[in-house]
Amino acid sequence: MSRSVLWCVSFDGAPLSGVVVESLKLARAFRQRGHRVLLDIGYDIKQDKGRFFAPYTDEAVGLPDWAELARIDGLDEIPWYTTGFVRSTLDAVRRGGALDSSFDAVVEALTRRIVATWRRHGVTAVLVENGTLPENIAYTQALYRAVERYGPELGPPRPFVLWRDHDLMWTSEPSTGKYGRPPYPLTPRPRNSPYIRYLALHDEARRRTLEWHPELRDLRVLHNTFDFSRTATGIGFRERHGIPAGAALIARCTRLIPQKRADRDIDLLARLRDRVPGRDVYLFLAGDPAEHPPTVTALRSQARRLGVADRVVFGGRLAPRDLASSTGGFSVADLLAEADLMSFLTSYDYESYGNPIGEAIASGVPYLTTRYALYDTVYGRKGFQAPVLEISADDDAPLTGEFVDDVVELLTNPRLHSRVAAHNRSRGERYFARSRADEVVGELLGEPTAPAAPVAADLPPVEPLAPGVRMTVVLPVRDEAANLPAVMESLAGQTLGRSRFDVLLVDNNSRDDTVALARRLAARYEGLRLNVIAEAEQGVSCARRAGMDLAARRAQERDGDDAAERFYLVSADADCRVAPDWLAELLTAMDGEKAAIGVCDYYYDAAHFAGRPLLWDAIDRTLRCRRVAWSRFGGFPDGKGFAVDRRAYQRVGGIELSYQVENGRFVSHLSDDWDFGILVRATGDDIVYVPTSRVEINPRRVDHAIDEVVAGRAYGSGGIITMRDIRPDGPGGRDLSEAEAVQAWEFSIKDFMPKNMILAALLTPSLLDDEGVIDLLSTDLARRMATRIPQITAETRLRDYVPIHSYKTPCFRLYFEFAEELFARLRARVGPDIGYPPALPDCLQEVRDTGDEERFREFVRHYCEDRESGAAHDYFGNGGVF
């Protein structure tokens, strides 16, 4: 039996470019299926590299030993097929002019030689990279003809060609007009053929291609893929290149050509001088110095001028990260194994993908980059985290102080470094895993494939709300397979009959088998109804809103607007367990009180904190304060478990998402549950605290929050709220030191008191006339707070406190003015261990020491309203620890 043969042809015309490396990654999947792999680098296609018809010399260096270099036979013998012909054809493409009279003859001659070469080698599959890029449209036309002539020789019509475009006219240096402007009248469009399967590099390339050619039937997206299992030790790498063992190392894994803008890295290196205590910073520039000598000369001169020449290493060409070299030597994997950061400060519109970023992600190395034209399409919108240097369309990208500070933080903060690396690697495995390329190749070769994991469009429709169901539990999930068994068991064990509630699971882009596992678990419990929907926008806020909105619509469709019986939407978190009476107690309280929202009691299992007495003491004090305050003020909803009346939910417009900028991109804010409670209470509706409806909080949340507290911050600093995954990088378990215990308690109580005691009164001043509130605060304190609230409200000039976090300034002001008395009341009601207020900020203490209370109030106002400094935000921590 003859061996299968893959022919790879690249329009890039350069060995070991990103395009060629990606060709070989796909080719490896063929190789693993027994194919012989022949690689045509494309010298005889692209005239501007100066290698037209040039023989191969050392191109095999760095290639895997299974990739054989090959060429189409006899192209140099075709009359008229010269670099001049290719250049003039490209000029006609750009101008929209007439093609050379020899064009058809050249295409036919190319076609015959391509087919003859494929026959001679017994080619059974073809991989075309960048064939639609109009470098050489004659060669593109010839490939199409060759495919149609050669395809029937392989048997019944079937795809044997993968045609994948890394660059297209609109992504390859568009500002230069190198390939002309739309509508590209001379560029060959992709063809619907039984022999060809087209692949786009990303969603934007697919969209633009289909705009150009709407009739194209088979165009799929295949991202560049990376081997996340590949590891390297980098042994001997630093010694070989003269890099000290303790030095910080920034890697640059690109070609040394002007468009890659390595000059920006040398500028950055100079800016980092003396910014990394105890460590010199080195820059390694990989790339062939002979490819464009003027660039290397300019870079060396720049390094000398800036005084960093001794720390810039020109390391030469390295073997690809994901492909084993047949000649040994170091690879990009070895460089990244030794690097602290990978840099990609490339030009604005030269890049269509940015492979070095993907290589860094797969290697567990944080990266920094410019926001080049397609950065957000390929990486940014997928949630990767990195310092991103803003860049203009004319390629202006000054190194800002903020960007340099972000780089310094990654080089000096080990916790941040490891967290960013782990986050990026986790997301990268979802989008760029090598298995995706393997699936594409297997499908082309007719291999049976396993059913794809369901996506939003493939999920079964949600069933109508069954008669008798009074509550829908909305459960947002993302990669929660480890927690789901306990959660589903606690839901199935509710004393409220299973005919009275159902579960709506909202899959927020899980990469594990969360959804399938949830279905299997639900099937174990007779009568437990489970529906699943998907929410593509990342963030628990987005997922919770999608579930709540759907649950409300289902209830409205079943009951109409005038139903006598109330229906409740219930929020749950996938990592928290609920008590058996959780739903039953909520239902009873909500029906009895006619409240808009029912708030659960949250607790931790003390057994999880055995041997951690200082930590448990801080937790216990916080929970005791919460119970007392909520029993008087009613509390606020928390995503871990609350119920809302369906009509009240719809009356306020549901959960309103807020967005903030994090690492240069918009992310949904995590305070949707709290802000929703503010919105409901501000309408005058009641919130009832249901202490008998209990939710156990997963202790992993504490270990995460404590990490932040020990670092001297809670949820961000400088007025910026930092969104974080609550899952810690490693196991917790240690107790706090005495100093850390004090810090944790003070963060917790400073967050608790403004939000849980003052905010309710701010939104509903009539609460200060409530007997239970007066009993807690005293008649005098309640009266004085009732007098002060409208004064502060008038001074803020805000109409209401519903807009996100507008409540903070007045709550912070009231805290500073009444803290001593509020703590005294908590000591009396909760216990003497509540203690006294944490120390004032020094600036306020200086004013208080003067004894001038009016001046103190005035400076409290300035302190709390100074949004630019974020000082008040940092003092209060912007988030409870427990």
UniProtKB/TrEMBL annotation:
- Assigned EC number: 2.4.-.-
Ordered alphabetically, the record's keywords are: Glycosyltransferase, Transferase
Glycosyltransferase 2-like domain: residues covered:
472-628
Q: What class of enzyme is it?
A: transferase
Q: Which Pfam families match?
A: Glyco_trans_1_4 (PF13692), Glycos_transf_2 (PF00535)
Superkingdom is Bacteria
Any one Gene Ontology molecular-function term assigned to this protein's record: glycosyltransferase activity
How is this protein named in the record? Glycosyltransferase
**Which species does this protein come from?**
Kineosporia corallincola
